[in-house]
Amino acid sequence: xxxxxxxxxxxxxxxxxxxxxxxxxxxxxxxxxxxxxxxxxxxxxxxxxxxxxxxxxxxxxxxxxxxxxxxxxxxxxxxxxxxxxxxxxxxxxxxxxxxxxxxxxxxxxxxxxxxxxxxxxxxxxxxxxxxxxxxxxxxxxxxxxxxxxxxxxxxxxxxxxxxxxxxxxxxxxxxxxxxxxxxxxxxxxxxxxxxxxxxxxxxxxxxxxxxxxxxxxxxxxxxxxxxxxxxxxxxxxxxxxxxxxxxxxxxxxxxxxxxxxxxxxxxxxxxxxxxxxxxxxxxxxxxxxxxxxxxxxxxxxxxxxxxxxxxxxxxxxxxxxxxxxxxxxxxxxxxxxxxxxxxxxx
Amino acid sequence: xxxxxxxxxxxxxxxxxxxxxxxxxxxxxxxxxxxxxxxxxxxxxxxxxxxxxxxxxxxxxxxxxxxxxxxxxxxxxxxxxxxxxxxxxxxxxxxxxxxxxxxxxxxxxxxxxxxxxxxxxxxxxxxxxxxxxxxxxxxxxxxxxxxxxxxxxxxxxxxxxxxxxxxxxxxxxxxxxxxxxxxxxxxxxxxxxxxxxxxxxxxxxxxxxxxxxxxxxxxxxxxxxxxxxxxxxxxxxxxxxxxxxxxxxxxxxxxxxxxxxxxxxxxxxxxxxxxxxxxxxxxxxxxx
Amino acid sequence: xxxxxxxxxxxxxxxxxxxxxxxxxxxxxxxxxxxxxxxxxxxxxxxxxxxxxxxxxxxxxxxxxxxxxxxxxxxxxxxxxxxxxxxxxxxxxxxxxxxxxxxxxxxxxxxxxxxxxxxxxxxxxxxxxxxxxxxxxxxxxxxxxxxxxxxxxxxxxxxxxxxxxxxxxxxxxxxxxxxxxxxxxxxxxxxxxxxxxxxxxxxxxxxxxxxxxxxxxxxxxxxxxxxxxxxxxxxxxxxxxxxxxxxxxxxxxxxxxxxxxxxxxxxxxxxxxxxxxxxxxxxxxxxxxxxxxxxxxxxxxxxxxxxxxxxxxxxxxxxxxxxxxxxxxxxxxxxxxxxxxxxxxxxxxxxxxxxxxxxxxxxxxxxxxxxxxxxxxxxxxxxxxxxxxxxxxxxxxxxxxxxxxxx
Lengths: 346, 288, 407
Description:
The structure holds 3 protein chains of 3 kinds. By secondary structure, chain A is mainly alpha-helical. In chain A, 69% of the residues lie in helices and 4% in strands. Chain A is built from 13 helices and 6 strands. In chain A, the strands form 3 sheets. A two-stranded antiparallel ribbon of chain A has the order 1-2. In chain A, strands 3-6 form a two-stranded antiparallel sheet. Chain A has a two-stranded antiparallel ribbon with strand order 4-5. The longest helix of chain A has 27 residues, at 217-243. Mean pLDDT of chain A is 85; it is low at 333-346. Chain B is an all-alpha fold. Chain B has one domain. Chain B is built from 11 helices and 2 strands; from the N terminus they run ααααββααααααα. Chain B has helices at 2-32, 39-55, 60-82, 91-113, 136-158, 160-170, 172-177, 182-204, 215-229, 233-254, 257-274, and strands at 127-129, 132-134. In chain B, 62% of the residues are buried. Chain C has 2 domains: 2-13 and 31-147 and 282-363 and 385-402, Response regulator (Rossmann fold, 3-Layer(aba) Sandwich), CATH 3.40.50; 152-252, Rossmann fold (3-Layer(aba) Sandwich). In chain C, 40% of the residues lie in helices and 22% in strands. Chains in contact: A-B, A-C, B-C. At the A-B interface, helix 5, helix 10 and helix 12 of A face helix 4, helix 9 and helix 11 of B.
């Protein structure tokens, strides 16, 4: 996945579009679309963290906060507006704006890795806690009751723009979500090829050096963080449309944890890894959910431990090596060091 | 007057319980830079050990003060040998591996103890302060916590192990050159940290209904307390627990426990923004 | 499922409305499918597990009697793991893929509200069989749990007569607790008392030390605690640990529903006042027969609790509705049930109220004694007057709302 320019960029885009289209159309033949929709949404969420962590070096422990904000924005705006097009846009903008503020707060304070992790974690916990206390009738935004622990059911589902009664669910929702993921994936690829993306990677590799070259690291990190939050927000809106209810558990520690697990299992520092990781881990989880023999948290935990111990760079880089080995014969596989925040010196 | 005594006890209790639940994590993180996200589950294991032992007829004080730490300490030893030993120096990886461990433990608790609430009754009766009744167990938690902090200072300062451990954490190469195996020091430290988590779990067991997922309630608070405490172990623990415990209880009492929790979290954010490396990076430097 | 998917693909978005139609065309000969969503694991498993056992017992009994309309009944059950988000997922699956004939289940009011619209949209009959805050007005739903007018209206004056007029309320912070707290305040006022404090607690709060101190600052005569779930059980422990159980009496609208009185020690639990539709200690032939059947199926009867029994009754009510209607189709079954359909079971006689789709049932005032519920007084056949005051499905069959009490 080396960053490329010119002709190879066009080729990269072509490959992504063709492979993506094949997957979008092919997967419904082998799996149930209701579950695929969820995998696609989680894939997008994983991609959002993969972007800021894998390429920007920002370990956000509270990515679920932006996912949840997107979902709540979609639900609340939907109830007030009565259709879903503007709410969908808002569900990208609101989390991005919140992330910009939080990012500025953290990056301009020059917080280190672990401290950043703690603050993002605390931020999502605050939202989680606070939303859980909003069951009373006093907590209303426009016509939407926040509902506390219950969350918000009964908001307008995703509809065809301009036709509020033409709601999309089931198969159509899958295709919408899958195409959205493909578009976001292409945008992320484009971003990473741009100078902004290359500098972001530079910051991840050596913050001091990039800073000495005259770039404003704090602003760049803040912007990248906000972009990641916007993507997570979009995933949240799609999730709300799929689940038909939003609850505070979207903000939970568990949800944030899973996003990180997806990135690790899939492979950090790759675009496809997190998406793959989300799909694999979620499928395993759903499959295990249907049986009573082994507790599924036990298995999920075991997977994570084994990956950290034996395959710390995730599935995607290994697949890429395998691929290179298979088609390239003697071409030497590229080994890239997976970025994982440094060691704290506290 | 009576009321202020009651509130004072509640505040002290909040501080003491924060220090107690954070102590094990502080040892493991503060000395080894291992972020043990399974800390909450270590505590829950201590709780289950206590409840099981009490069920078998063991005196409750022996169960929570002796059996729980031993069980969890041994468990920590095994886990250290199997997992963490391979990950020293890779902080984010230890965090992820311990997260996996925490999920495994929750799953294991569910399979072994069932996914229901269990608990033991508190062994100490309530008492009155003027017109008010106070939970007697709160005082016990305060006493345990104070003794624990004193013991930690004594071990770190006054014993050979404390000296070697501190030396190893600062310069493991030098300690090794002097004939102290860093591997063994890490192992012992991790086991001790685990035992502290077990102690905390045992002591908290009579206060809360224990469920397999109860650890989640502890880990965030412990993590925040340790990070906000900063590099100095005991002083950091005490000062961070003091700050957050006070904020938490004052808001709990004035408004509600939830607002108390939110106030604690907000205080943590503000504190970290002002002193990014924790309280003891600015105050109490060079102490223990 | 291939067939469904092709049909989905062929018809695409425009036809989604048509796809939501019920499923009876798919062959009348197979088993009747009863969907269920219950928290069999997670923090509400103490409620959900016995409910699951109860519904399996009910269905086994129905099948042993030759099934319904000559067809066997099959349970399509999902464990929602005490996660509200899973309710909508599984409810969607039950109606869109499994195409069940009825859905039974939901425990917390939160879970009911999460799936009620989904089931209504899909025109699948829904039974919610748990005591709750009242006010749901929806012709697609039948509810046989006790409501505040059936429970709190008698519990509050009795508890106040045993203590005094100043009442402090501690409630779980979600729709059940919020609305129940308002009902409690109404009944306290109606009986000449005064509510001196109301506090709400999210379901994961387990430390009540500051709350116990706060309560003492206003020294009420009585504390009523509609608290819910495992974490809230700590309140009763900490209350006893500080010696308050000797000073201020407790009443609860939820305590014991999940058999919590068996988890608490006698010292912690003794004296707590409750009012329910069922207790294991009821000495009626129907209840004794039920306990024997349970023992034959599962051995240990100690798990039986009120909402397990009302869930059992809910399955039996639906089955009787199907028998009367002679079909599993939704509207005929609703109409059969609306015909004041009545059954007798372990919790006594239960009659559907056509105006509200709630049930008229017996309520018993009880007190915890040595981990048992000691019967104080039985009040027979109480109608759901709270919901009747606001909801009339005969006059307004298209109503779809949950009314909340205003104070």
